[in-house]
């Protein structure tokens, strides 16, 4: 139970973190409904994820052109991203470069409120392998659930790790090859009893399983204690496609059985779907287009006269924003940062093309 281990680390670090995990087990009591994904969507992990859909529970993500980097480098650090949405059977396709290093575990996990779990796990001591695993209702007493699969250069190349999950079977695919199937009814699942079958969140994590104080079994599994001198340890996720086999707004456990038959699906548009369908916030260059030709000429003149494009563009931009009553929007921290980057790109492009086209000397 990987997330039990992780959880105990997190519990030490912060008591606030454990809440969603143990908050409410629907096989023991009545719990709030789970927000559904209710659709299919691919997230590129190269720019900020929508925090109404994804929640960075621990650590930070660094977005690069390659994808999102999940990094830890010091004792006590760890990373965990989880979806706010749940899927009730479906497909999760993740393109991953595992983290290297003994004791380090990269993982992409589906997990439900009653601890059904479907795992991809990469142990950092072996960069040619990935492990598959599953649990039903957090039950760890059956053996032979784990699988190990060969995959070349898993730390330096992205590979496509796909989980297919429905009420009859569970499949793990690597780069288009089916590497493992678990049927609903077989000894490993205790003939269905321990088959994952309730709505699951998606969790992505890079974490130190090999740490002082962990169970010896866990440390051995992870390939020893993490050697922090060899850090930082980075797992990279390029993109993720998630398909929910149900469409709807939320999932409710109608009783304490934890069986898939007990899950009620409420129709309607999910929060995630609504967020996905929202138009992206306007970029600086789109706003620039909106300013119109008059303003453009004004800025060109101002820039040409003063030779200080950056200042002119910003002043006029912010004056416009103020006039439209949107200064607040522009100054919003998160958006401001991306718009700054956007503005810089824009200015570079502008300098390279417009200044040349117009025969102006670039003043640096
Ligand atoms: C992210 O990757 C996608 C697909 O390759 C690309 O279309 C998009 O422009 C990239 N976005 C950023 C911010 O790099
Ligand atoms: C990594 O795992 C693969 C697949 O199980 C195995 O063939 C290989 O020997 C392992 N390598 C190391 C270094 O443990
Ligand atoms: C776990 O599964 C085994 C095998 O079916 C069963 O005997 C045991 O009671 C289960 N444990 C729990 C806590 O449900
Ligand atoms: C990833 O693998 C799955 C399962 O084989 C496949 O359906 C999907 O098309 C693959 N994705 C890409 C981008 O090739
Ligand atoms: C799963 O079921 C299929 C038939 O639906 C069968 O071919 C396969 O051998 C079964 N796999 C296991 C691991 O029981
Ligand atoms: C769901 O959203 C679509 C637009 O994306 C809208 O046409 C439809 O009425 C919505 N359905 C509900 C039940 O709100």
UniProtKB/TrEMBL annotation:
Domain of life of the organism encoding this protein: Eukaryota
CDD domains, A to Z: GH16_fungal_CRH1_transglycosylase
Glycosyltransferase is among the record's keywords: yes
EC number(s) given by UniProt: 3.2.1.14
GO cellular component term of the entry, any: side of membrane
A biological process from GO: fungal-type cell wall organization
Catalytically driven reaction(s): Random endo-hydrolysis of N-acetyl-beta-D-glucosaminide (1->4)-beta-linkages in chitin and chitodextrins
Membrane topology summary: Lipid-anchor; GPI-anchor
Function of the protein: Dual chitinase/transglycosylase that plays a role in cell wall architecture. Chitinase and transglycosylase activities are coupled. Required for the polysaccharide cross-linking at the septa and the cell wall. More specifically, transfers chitin to 1,6-beta-glucan in the cell wall.
Family the UniProt entry places it in: Belongs to the glycosyl hydrolase 16 family. CRH1 subfamily.
Identification of the protein by name: chitinase
């Amino acid at each position: 139970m990987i997330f039990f281990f992780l959880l105990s680390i997190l519990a030490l670090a912060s008591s606030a973190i454990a809440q969603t995990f143990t908050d409410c087990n629907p096989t023991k009591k009545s719990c709030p409904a789970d927000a559904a994904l209710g659709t299919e969507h691919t997230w590129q992990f190269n720019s900020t994820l929508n925090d109404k859909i994804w929640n960075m529970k621990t650590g930070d993500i660094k977005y690069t052109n390659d994808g999102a980097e999940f990094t830890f480098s010091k004792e006590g650090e760890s990373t965990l991203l989880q979806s706010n949405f749940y899927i009730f059977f479906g497909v999760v396709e993740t393109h991953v470069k595992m983290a290297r290093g003994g004791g380090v575990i990269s993982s992409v996990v589906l997990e439900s409120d009653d601890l059904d779990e479907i795992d991809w796990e990469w142990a950092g001591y072996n960069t040619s392998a990935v492990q598959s695993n599953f649990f039903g209702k957090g039950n760890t007493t059956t053996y032979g659930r784990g699988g190990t699969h060969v995959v070349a250069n898993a730390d330096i190349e992205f590979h496509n790790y796909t989980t297919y999950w429905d009420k009859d079977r569970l499949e793990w695919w690597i780069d288009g090859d089916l590497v493992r199937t678990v049927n609903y009814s077989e000894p490993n699942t205790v003939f269905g009893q321990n088959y994952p079958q309730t709505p699951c969140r998606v969790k992505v994590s890079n974490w130190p399983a090999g740490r002082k104080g962990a169970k010896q079994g866990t440390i051995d599994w992870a390939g020893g204690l993490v050697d922090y001198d060899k850090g930082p340890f980075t797992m990279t996720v390029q993109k993720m496609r998630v398909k929910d086999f149900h469409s709807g707004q939320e999932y409710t456990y109608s009783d304490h059985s934890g069986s898939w038959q007990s899950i009620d699906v409420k129709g309607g548009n999910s929060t995630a779907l609504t967020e996905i369908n929202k138009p992206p916030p306007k970029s600086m260059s789109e706003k620039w287009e909106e300013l119109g030709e008059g303003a453009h000429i004004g800025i060109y003149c101002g820039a040409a006269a003063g030779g200080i494009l950056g200042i002119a563009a910003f002043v006029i931009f912010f004056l416009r924003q103020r006039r439209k009553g949107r200064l607040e929007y522009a100054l919003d921290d998160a958006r401001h940062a991306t718009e700054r980057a956007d503005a810089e790109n824009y200015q570079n492009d502008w300098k390279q093309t417009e200044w040349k086209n117009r025969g102006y000397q670039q003043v640096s």
